[in-house]
Specification:
The structure holds two protein chains of two kinds. By secondary structure, chain A is mainly α. Helix content of chain A is about 70%, strand content about 0%. The longest helix of chain A has 27 residues. Helices cover about 25% and strands about 45% of the residues of chain B. Chain B has a nine-stranded antiparallel beta sheet with strand order 1-2-3-9-8-7-6-5-4, covered by helices on one side. The chains are: A mainly alpha, B alpha+beta. Chains A and B meet through α9 of A and α1 and α4 of B.
Chain lengths: ~270, ~160
Amino acid sequence: MTADELSAQFMSIQGELKSFLLRMTASVQDAEDILQDTYLKAHANVDAFRGESSLKTWIFSIASNLARDLLRARKRWPETVTDICRDEALGNRQFFQEAIQIRQTSPQGNFEIKEHIAFCFTCVSKSLPLEGQLVLLLKEIYGFKVKEISQILQMSEAMVKYHLHVSRSTMIEIFDRRCSLINKQGICYQCTELNGIFNPKQNTQEELVKIEMAKEAENRSQEELFNLRMKILQELDPFESGAAQLQLHHLEHNRQVMEKYLEENSYRSSH
Amino acid sequence: MNRQASSQTGEGRAKTIKKTFSRETSVSTTIHADPAVVWALLTHASDFPRWNSTVTSMKGEIAEGGSVELKSTLDDKRTFKLKVKEFVPEKRLVWGDALGSRLYTLTRGDGGSTHFSMTEKIGGPLFPLFAGSIPSFDETFERYAADLKKEAETIQRSKK
């Protein structure tokens, strides 16, 4: 494969790759840095690509390893990330002023509940062990097969299946317990709460009916509802959607809150 | 001297051999899953309570030289502090404390199956003094093996 061919193919998958990296890191800056490093590394090693896997698998392998190297040293987020960040946001006037300005002026400043569902998943999936988060995203959102994931992450197919099973089970349990869209007793209703703030003229119930996962909450199994949640993420590009700027602003807020929270808790636990 | 043996033997059934200074309980079963899947379940400490109904919590690292703190349904008030004594991936795992040790072995079988066995031996010179206060492990061992088999086979069957 020539360098030009690599560049052309890289361009064709870079949107998907960047979205994967954002969902892994929850940071636009980290996603862009790793994307660039992935390209440089692929370019430098293009002669080593033997076609034993698809080029897409090979490039995702480079990117996944770079993400793994970066994230291994960082603490995982708690599953209550959205509660913690909501409390912080309520006391942060600047955050809401910026968000309202984005909402009013940006072409990517819409607020849609399904976009927030995807955002919420990105935050909560960072509570999984790193390997589990990688496997879950690659399989459920980016459509890689178990065999391809085993090539990407250099682990046995059995281990991929193990991580996939545990991650799915864990996320299903968390959302079933917490998400008020699928469980009336769920304690998290942030997506509908924010919809009331950003879209005050909308009828939230009418909006929820448009979301299959919410509409089918009482008719489908936990597994099926999780698959519907994954479908929302599959269909959304967090950089290109009509709500991208608003959600990325919110994600950066949560990332900063988590960084501070984990540092303070690490300090408390060591003193 | 072999004083008493459990009448239960065979696939998934626990067997206990009681001697004056020791007691040994074992269980074995065939699991229709790759040894790597079984090994993954046996070595991810924090994941144990999710699939294993006999474990209420487990912290630590099940790895070469690692140690774990385990709470079991046998006695939820007590925390067992165990050191990993042997760790041969996908084949053999031993953990234990001063009173005894638990040995897990995995053997690859036909058609991608795994023969799993688990044996715990407790004992020592003072064993007769506290033997009466240690509950039987038989029921717990059988549930442990059944839970492991069920979970590993579920993972093995999961979509590709």
